[in-house]
Design brief:
Strand 6 and strand 7 form a beta hairpin. This protein has 8 helices and 9 strands. It has one domain: Spore Coat Polysaccharide Biosynthesis Protein SpsA, Chain A, CATH 3.90.550.10. The chain has 238 residues and is of the alpha/beta class.
Length: 238
């Protein structure tokens, strides 16, 4: 069973395209779990109408404590053996699920992350043909401590991995960096698929930011991340 873990908040403008690109790839026994974090636009109505006619869609109320808390909330609610993370505003390529599942099966990996094409708001222009190339993506705990090389919307992992990264500290900057680094630590690396299996939409309301923080902010963020990693891993077996 596959679970797709999606978070939403005021995403009505792009939500339909993303939902359609996901559901067409899921089997009857799979599920799309959506945690809405207090949307005030048409997002809840869109989701409810879909859930009323598609039993694979399960809606839950988000904790309204920010995006990291909302992702943890929806990940905990998933019932499948493999969990795909999903934003509300991208579009999956038609063979994404198949290729990611094939990679998980062939490699025995705990986590797979694929490449993405970074697009403009209307998906009519390619801004960066490869997120991997733009970001210098590679697996490895220490490489990711220096610079976040993970992108959550391109991740899929075995549900058993949850014990190695939950709960996610609220003080860190990004949930995807935390998940990826914990997988690197406990499972010796992430399998990278160097193929863009998602159109990554860039627009003003996007939660992620491609700009760089100032050096003092970067140092502070890494200090907080390292402190939380040490605290978490003291409680967990090596």
């Amino acid at each position: 069973m596959i679970s797709v873990a999606m978070t939403t908040r005021n995403g009505e403008r792009y939500l339909g395209a993303q939902l359609g690109s996901i559901l067409i790839q899921l089997e009857e026994t799979d599920e799309l779990v959506v945690s809405d974090d207090g949307s005030t636009d048409g997002t809840p109505a869109i989701l409810q109408a879909l859930a009323d006619k598609d039993p694979r869609v399960r809606l839950i109320q988000g904790p309204r404590e920010g995006i990291i808390a909302n992702y943890e909330h929806v990940i905990r609610a998933c019932r499948g053996e493999v969990i795909f993370l999903s934003d509300q505003d991208d579009v999956w390529k038609e063979d994404k699920v198949k290729k990611v599942m094939d990679a998980l099966e062939k490699t025995g990996a705990s986590l797979v992350m694929h490449d993405a094409a970074v697009m403009n708001e209307d998906l009519t222009e390619v801004l960066y043909p490869s997120f991997f190339a733009f970001r210098g993506c590679k697996s490895g705990f220490f490489a990711s401590l220096v610079k976040n090389r993970y992108i959550g919307c391109c991740m899929a992992f075995r549900a058993s991995l949850r014990d190695d990264f939950l709960p996610i500290p609220r003080t860190i900057q990004m949930h995807d960096q935390w998940i990826g680094m914990q997988c690197d630590r406990y499972h010796r690396g992430t399998v990278l698929l160097h193929e863009p299996l998602l159109s990554y939409r860039r627009h003003e309301e996007a939660n992620s930011d491609f700009s760089h923080n100032s050096v003092p902010v970067m140092i502070r963020n890494r200090f907080v991340l390292m402190k939380e990693l040490l605290r978490f891993n003291r409680k967990s077996p090596s």
